[in-house]
Amino acid sequence: MGKPVEMPIRDPWFERREVAPGITWVLEPSVNGFLRSNIWHVRGRDRDLVVDAGMGISPLRSAYPDLFKGDVLAFFTHGHYDHTGGAHEFERRASHVAEAVMLSEPEEATLVTADLPQSFAAALTAEAPDGVTPPFLVDALPYAGYDVSGYTIAPAPVTDPLADGDVIDLGDRVFEVVHLPGHTPGSAALIDRDSGVLFTGDVLYDGELLDELPESNIDDYVASMQRLLSLDAAIAYAGHEPPLSRDDVQRLGSAYLAQRSG
Ligand SMILES: [Zn+2]
Ligand SMILES: [Zn+2]
């Protein structure tokens, strides 16, 4: 147990917003912008879909019992802990098969800046508005006495390993798995080809894309971005930052490709 840390309490921990009929965006405002990821809930006729599950700092399902009820499949766009910290709360967990080991054997995770790799800590400092390195990756606690230094990720083995082209059928909407390696080997998107709704994970969002992590591959990323653009999504719900219009997707994706071919 670490020393108690003085920080404001944020309760409820999450915020939610319905962004389209049956599609709800859940996020964790008190997580540092470097890690603050999106959780997407899609209401289906026969079952619901959750895309990514946030940091796992505070219980997700009990925060919104009306949302997380009944039959739900949780799909993980990839295995980084800002997306999988809450994975253990779901009984049915899907990811691309190449990413499954990252859920059953989670990476080291921390909320303490001093415990981060030096490059990560330096990036945090560079982005801090006042130039002061934030001591933690959260600016509030979910409840008084929360042990920030005790943060870990619970193993959450994948029950439904999926491959490119596999489908997740909600009854009235069908999502197809699109394997888009590069950020990680098993990064995958989901697309509803009828509506053009695309969940991109960390392959595309409005921010600096990470293709130089130890588990990344730039050549794969470039090929995946070309494929993503060819999907011609009408709207993209990304792993970080707000939803992207068709034009946003083309602009941001093209900018990445230009940067990497330049
Ligand atoms: Zn990631
Ligand atoms: Zn991420």
Which strand order do you get reading across the main beta sheet? 1-2-3-4-5-6-7
Q: How helical, in percent, are the residues?
A: 10-25%
Give the amount of beta strand, in percent: 15-25%
Which whole number gives the mean pLDDT?
A: 95
The set of bound ligands, ions and cofactors reads: zinc ion
Number of H/I helices? 5
Architecture overview:
This protein has 262 residues and is an alpha/beta fold. The chain has one domain: Ribonuclease Z/Hydroxyacylglutathione hydrolase-like (Metallo-beta-lactamase, Chain A), CATH 3.60.15. Helices cover 18% and strands 22% of the residues. It has 5 helices and 13 strands. The strands form 2 sheets. It has a 7-stranded mixed beta sheet with strand order 1-2-3-4-5-6-7, with no helix packed on it. A hairpin with a 4-residue loop joins strand 10 (188-192) and strand 11 (197-201). The chain is globular. The model has no long low-confidence stretch (mean pLDDT 95). Bound molecules: zinc ion (ZN) (2 copies). One zinc ion (ZN) is lined by residues 78, 80, 183, 202.
